[in-house]
Amino acid sequence: MPSARFQQLKETLNRQILGQPDLIEGLLIALLCDGHVLIEGAPGLAKTRAVKALGAALEARFSRVQFTPDLLPADLTGSEVFHPQDGSFVFQPGPLFHHLILADEINRAPAKVQSALLEAMAEHQITVGKKSWRLPPLFMVVATQNPIEQEGTYPLPEAQLDRFLLKLTVNYPTPALELAILQQHRFGELPPDRDQPLTQDEVQRARKAVLKVAMQPRLEQYIVELVCASREDPDRLIAYGASPRATLGLSRAARAKAWLAGRDYVVPDDIRALALPVLRHRLLPSYQADARQLGSDELVDMLLDRVPCP
Fold it and tell me: What is the rounded distance in angstroms from the CA atom of residue 200 to the CA atom of residue 136?
């Protein structure tokens, strides 16, 4: 069951990012599921640091893109450059051709940039002009956004939100944990771990192992009922429910969580633990929910209470 290399990676990341085990586990689950992650949290909570630590622990090309209002699609995809010597155009690939992409403050980029990123996330390809390029098998986008700054931001369209397997939230640490962070950084930044990076071949083998994790039919039925309940809300608190992509994502993420825990079968707690990060960004609260100050997290909790757990 879980490879010792993945356990080593998990321990390494938890040493570097104190007090964020759910964030670390979410990143690893997305890596195992060939999915993308959206991380939301206030500034200074180690969102970027966690993704950079993951990039350093993988034998893969890592690229960080700072999203700004003046960013252009070509800044992500690359563009054709004219060579006057022979009168030819040569394509220069952009940062999206890397394996792990950190899209920092993704909601600051305009719609055209979001569209270019959406194609890469959805189709694993990039189109420039009349030609398309396939992206590598290991391609993962981790995006961050700040929930408290709304001026100068562009809310992500629902179609793009649905492409993220998980939406993880990062909260402030407790006083005791913040003291531990202070003591850890007393002498500056920690030196990087000298562990052998996880190879792409190891990641692909782990992904195949995750697909073999068993899930009983009653648990598959539970996932379907949970997602369908988001579309049939009798209280009309959910304007739009989750798509079938949420069903597939919750099933695969539950298998990855079980695999990381050392089991070859899924238990109900795996599904319930991942329902919030898989569904929170796929539910659109209605006007009634807004009037009652109910957000997506509260709506997911409501679904978990309403649908009987096997």
Answer: 10
Q: Which residues pair with 169 in a beta bridge?
A: 40
Q: Measured between alpha carbons, how far is 296 from 180 in angstroms, rounded to an integer?
A: 32
What is the token pair recorded at 123?
A: 């189709």
Mean pLDDT computed over 207-227: 94
SS3 141: strand
Separation between Cα atoms, residue 229 and residue 219, nearest integer Å: 15
Q: What is the average pLDDT value for the chain, to the nearest integer?
A: 87
End-to-end Cα spacing for the chain? 25
Rounded average pLDDT over 39-62:
89
pLDDT for res 187: 66
Count how many Cα atoms sit within 13 Å of the Cα of residue 106 in the half-sphere of its side chain. Answer: 28
In whole angstroms, how far apart are CA 183 and each of 18, 187, 193, 228? 11, 8, 18, 47
Angle between helices 200-211 and 244-260 (to 10 degrees): 110
Distance, in Å, from the CA atom of 89 to the CA atom of 56, rounded to the nearest integer, reads 34
Rounded Cα gap, residues 201 and 59, in angstroms: 10
Query: What confidence tier does 250 reach under pLDDT thresholds 50, 70, 90?
Result: very high
Question: Over 90: is that where the pLDDT of 277 sits?
Answer: yes
Yes or no: say if 170 and 63 are a contact pair by the CB < 8 Å rule. no
Q: Is 44 helix (H, G, I), strand (E, B) or coil?
A: coil
Closest CA to 63 of 20, 117, 12, 133: 117
Q: Is 242 helix (H, G, I), strand (E, B) or coil?
A: coil
Q: Are 177 and 72 in contact (CB under 8 A)?
A: no
Q: Name the DSSP letter for residue 108.
A: G
Confidence of residue 191 (pLDDT cuts 50, 70, 90): low
Q: Which two tokens stand for residue 163?
A: 């492409």
Spatial CA neighbour of 142 closest among 44, 52, 15 = 52
What single DSSP character describes residue 78?
E
